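User: For a teaching handout, I'd like to show students what a predicted protein-ligand complex looks like in token form. I'll give you the sequence and the SMILES for pyridoxal-5'-phosphate. Please answer with just the structure.
Assistant: Understood, here is the input followed by the structure.
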Amino acid sequence: MSSPNAESTAFRSALEVIRAVEPRVAGAIAAELTDQRESLKLIASENYASPATLLAMGNWFSDKYAEGTVGRRFYAGCQNVDTVEALAAEHARELFGAAHAYVQPHSGIDANLVAFWAVLADRVEAPALEKARARHVNDLTEADWFALRRELGNQRMLGMSLDAGGHLTHGFRPNISGKMFDQRSYGTDPRTGLIDYDKVAEAAREFKPLILVAGYSAYPRRVNFRMMREIADSVGATFMVDMAHFAGLVAGKVLTGDFDPVPHAHIVTTTTHKSLRGPRGGMVLCQPELAEQVDRGCPMVLGGPLPHVMAAKAVALAEARRPDFADYANRIVANAQALAEGLLRRGADLVTGGTDNHLAIIDVTSYGLTGRQAEQALLDSGIVTNRNSVPQDPNGAWYTSGIRIGTPALTTRGLGTAEMDVIAELIHTVLSQTNAGSNADGTASKAKYALDAAVADKVSRQAGELLAGFPLYPTVDLT
Ligand SMILES: *Cc1c(COP(=O)(O)O)cnc(C)c1O
């Protein structure tokens, strides 16, 4: 433990130094702390990193170029970067039981790109690839690149559909993965909302993907990775799991056995800032066969590594290896289940009828609302969520019919199951008191809504009172 006042002193001093140069930046940083302290954050992908993790990012590691890997850099003077990168990778391997960890990706999307490229480079027979493998990318001619693109053409990826909770980077058009791969997706059973593994197997047999991707941003259940691996093996696909959302539950040993992706997947990608509670960033874990290709992530796919963020990853991963992190991970799920049960008891409709991870999706059509209307009404009432598609969403990807809620952040603040029931009451109150609006021509609007300001104010006040009992960053006093 650091001394009682160390954290306050550190952040106060940092702000004083910044204020002397550009006071508006110092002001915005301080205001962000106030806003985060005051908002009831149910955004499933956000969390609060520890002061040690935050402080590890604000230093001269930011000044270093460190292209290459530990001990094999294209720049001189990387011995201290080597120390933190090796530490972060070691903590990651130990924490997840992985053969190899690559901690340079700047974000989850970047980690996925590194993984896709590694699999292509490993699996696709192409003379141009042989060249790329043999040389530093900077030595490849333009003709080499054109040859490579042609030769790689039309590889296939099978991933979870967006409306069932999949992620844009799993082969969808707005992301480069949708241009790199010919993509097909698997959805969920329309009756249960659950992944139908027989259907996944059938799609794999028909489509014969190079990569089978599992992982999600908005699926409230566990995924059986052992079964997914069997499906991948049956068609000779590489099995990749994107655990960006639930890495904290894997780290905390809530997801074990068939539900732990690491022993089953050839390659696993993640963010480090969601349930894992580290700095904003990404990471790739893989089997030994893919390690060499994965380590080429920078400069093949990534810009120069961020040594200050790798330092923070090492700190956060060290924290996640402590026994209290397992307790945290268990409380995340207990809280999500309490919140889901509280909503169900009050008549809300949840996708799959509940949750067994860190998130739940409320289907707000039963309240007569779109996701967009519900999101705004909740925000007016001091509750921060995000709208999200539900399977076969009638309102499309912009307005949507769902609200995604998650408990990693509030669990970090210390809220427990009793508080989750209060929050369920607040959410239900807002949604049941909000009415969908109409357009000037009398047709139903998907965006306009009406919520009595007195209701919004009252809920906002109650949310504030609830949060006051669970101070955020209690060791940090900026006054
Ligand atoms: C959040 C998320 C990502 C993207 O992470 P960024 O750090 O925002 O790039 C990728 N995959 C999944 C499944 C995610 O949930």
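For the handout, you might add this sentence: The chain has two domains: 60-124+155-320, 323-468.
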